[in-house]
Amino acid sequence: MARTIRCECGYVARGDSDDDVITAIRAHMRTDHPALLEAVAREDLLGWIQVE
Ligand SMILES: [Zn+2]
User: Fold this and answer.
1) What's the 1 CA to ligand 1 centre distance in angstroms?
2) How many separate domains does the chain show?
3) CB 3.0 to 4.6 Å from 13: which of 8, 24, 37, 47, for a disulfide?
4) Would you say 29 and 11 are in contact if contact means Cβ atoms under 8 Å apart?
5) Is residue 26 a contact partner of residue 49, using CB atoms and an 8 Å limit?
6) Beta bridge partners of 6
7) Ligand 1 centroid to residue 14 C-alpha, Å
8) Which domain holds residue 9?
C-alpha cells in the first residue's frame, strides 16, 4: 500500500514505505520550505503519513 504525505502547499509526496515517503517529503521541503525542514522532526512526519 502506498503512503502519502500532503504538504501544506498542496504537494503530495508518495512512497512505498514510511522511509520512502519521508525521504520524498524532505526532498520537497529542502527545495521549497527549507525553514520547515529544520522545524519538523521525523516523528512529526510519521504522524502526517496517510496510507492509501
Ligand atoms: Zn510544500
Assistant:
1) 23
2) 1
3) 24
4) no
5) no
6) 12
7) 13
8) 3-51
